[in-house]
Write a sequence for this structure.
């Protein structure tokens, strides 16, 4: 008898009609002859509503109490799902993170799972029960309730799949799979049947909002096969995520992504002394400010200074602004520029390893459309370029065409060509 | 240093503004130099909303999953209250029933508390923390979440007060105390400064919706002083509930209550055989149908039968109707009458013990107003009469006047005199 872990996101359990639909998806897998562990997120807007309540009380809540508050969301959806499965004639039991024994670090709102107890869930599965587990939550020392932070429910599902040696972990949401590009922008983007963990990680990091990279990182060392699929089209198998070694690499580029959520910062005329850059990024790191692309110009200015540019999330701008004085004290910059009108376009593909010329083709393609590249960053299987935001959509279309990601001649490239 | 347990009901924590108000009530007690344990109910309509969701899924939910669902309500309100207290500069920690160690029977939706662990709460109090505990919930074998059923949060508060040897248990709600009669009906009803557990129990049972009898029953053997007071008038001390031995009994009758939530059932012409009544009430008990007043007429009918009349809660009528065939099989009645137009009026007072004539005065008073008495039941400190519903209000007014419960000459007795 196989074991499948299924995870249903907030939109899949947004109301009781959708919860009944999820019950059918679970029962279908059970009737296939598999044991089933189900992980659920909170219903639709529950988490937002709870956050709103907390904000009405304080702008600076204790993270412990936030975990107490937010962990109720999954407890509501999982008990309702258990009722729906029971009502449909099958037997389900819901368990909180604590009741399963999902042990985490002693840390609130962003805890990592350190261990999962298996006894209770195994016993229930052996009794023929469908086990429903609250996503996003665990328990740390002293029976304190913790939550896992962003991507937490996906991570719970994958971690359970690994701990119980499941055959597969299915992540259900309102998207039908992983696409070569965002289908809302590139109408002819193709759904991928398969993608490797590595490629999925790069795509997730550069802004394809399908799956949180944390869950993929958890699956990768265990080679746990994952499926991204739609809870509204149960017969569609979605996209399988597996190890790169199990894939045939036909094409160098698998996917495209565009990220509009970043802003560029330029620290001008930093005095060129050893350690200045280290001091700067240590300061940012100490305030939990994640930096993505970084460029330090090698061309030293005549006054023995140079510029340092980097990108941060737009949502971190307030945090960054509060650090400006400290930054000036450290690096004695002449100016700090903030550029919000940027888009990061990326191509990803495990097949680009050892295939030179992919980067050159990307830069060429952009240049042919007169799109200026402001920054570049690369990994083994990814190339990202920062461009002006107004050209993000055009860049998407010309790059998808150039790297055969759109599956059809594109008729709808609009004439937003730059002057 | 003293220890006070405070309990705040659903209306007291109905929104975030009210939660901030509760935080002030808690801090006020802390600034009085006391340690404080706070018990909270779910916010306003949270429980109703959760029940609505479950009803959309099934009419017959598993009680285990209902407990999983409903116990989230208190977890939300307690974490928000902890944030509000922290925001006001004091230090609070919220704990679920499980985290405290409120052990209950292995039973869902109506579990009784069997033990309370004190170590964790004591440690937090010794650190100067205000401890907030989820009302209404506990944990049984296998770390299963249980709820305590009706009156559960009041009971949690009193049980904690007893377990920790508190100086007092304050029950805050939207009423200002215990009144001699319902102030919405008897405008001049007086708030009592003190009342005994025994009297409070009788008043609670006969329909004064101030306090659930279960909490009073829990307090009584421990002689735990309770206060019923308003969360919106913090300077008002409300009503103190203490042992009858600590009270001076000046008046034979302390309070009046009118209960409109019952209906009368008459089983006509039951064959007068030994055990017939026992069979009837065993059947009702086996279906969890609580019976209140019971009268079996001693006057045997000419055909060797007599009538059995009793009252049940109006909300149990459907359940009762489903039993009619079984009842007919058992007692072979000629007819079963249901009378929904009744009101139960009661007077309560520990002072009526050994004071004959109180019952006679009550019957006289009703007769003088031409109010017919349909059934009577009594305890040591209570006399209840069933009357036609249309005379309930008039009965309230004449009885309060007769037993000096209104504190003033009543000008507003309306002329609803019966023909």
């Amino acid at each position: 008898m196989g074991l499948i872990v299924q995870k249903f996101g907030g939109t899949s359990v947004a109301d009781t009609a959708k919860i009944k639909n999820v019950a059918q998806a679970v029962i279908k897998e059970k009737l296939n002859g598999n044991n089933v562990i189900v992980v659920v997120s909170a219903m639709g807007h529950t988490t937002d509503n709870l956050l709103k309540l907390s904000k009405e009380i304080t702008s600076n809540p204790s993270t412990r109490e936030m975990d107490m508050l937010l962990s109720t969301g999954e407890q509501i959806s999982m008990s309702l799902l258990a009722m729906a499965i029971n009502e449909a004639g099958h037997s389900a039991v819901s368990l909180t993170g604590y009741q399963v024994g999902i042990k985490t670090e002693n840390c609130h709102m962003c805890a990592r799972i350190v261990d999962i107890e298996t006894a209770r869930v195994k016993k229930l599965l052996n009794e023929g029960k469908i086990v429903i587990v609250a996503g996003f939550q665990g328990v740390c020392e002293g029976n304190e309730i913790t939550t896992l932070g962003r991507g937490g429910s996906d991570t719970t599902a994958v971690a359970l799949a690994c701990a119980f040696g499941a055959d597969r972990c299915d992540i259900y949401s309102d998207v039908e799979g992983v696409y070569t590009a965002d289908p809302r922008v590139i109408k002819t983007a193709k759904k991928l049947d398969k993608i490797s963990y590595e490629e999925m990680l790069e795509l997730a990091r550069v802004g394809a909002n399908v799956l949180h990279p944390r869950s993929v990182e958890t699956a990768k060392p265990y080679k746990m096969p994952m499926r991204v699929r739609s809870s509204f089209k149960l017969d569609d198998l979605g996209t399988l995520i597996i190890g790169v070694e199990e894939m045939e690499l036909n094409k160098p580029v698998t996917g495209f992504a565009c990220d509009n959520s970043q802003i560029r910062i330029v620290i001008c005329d930093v005095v060129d002394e050893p350690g200045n850059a280290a001091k700067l990024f240590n300061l940012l790191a100490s305030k939990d400010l994640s930096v993505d692309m970084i460029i330090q110009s090698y061309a030293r200015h005549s006054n023995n200074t140079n510029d340092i540019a980097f990108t941060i999330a737009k949502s971190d701008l307030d945090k960054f602004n509060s650090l400006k004085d400290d930054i000036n004290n450290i690096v004695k910059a002449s100016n700090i520029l903030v550029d919000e009108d940027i888009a990061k376009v990326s191509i990803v593909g495990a097949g680009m390893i050892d295939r030179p010329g992919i980067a050159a083709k990307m830069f060429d393609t952009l240049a042919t459309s007169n799109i200026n590249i402001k920054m570049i960053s690369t990994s083994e299987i990814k190339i990202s370029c920062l461009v002006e935001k107004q050209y993000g959509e055009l860049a998407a279309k010309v790059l998808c065409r150039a790297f055969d990601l759109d599956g059809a001649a594109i008729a709808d490239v609009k004439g937003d060509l730059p002057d």
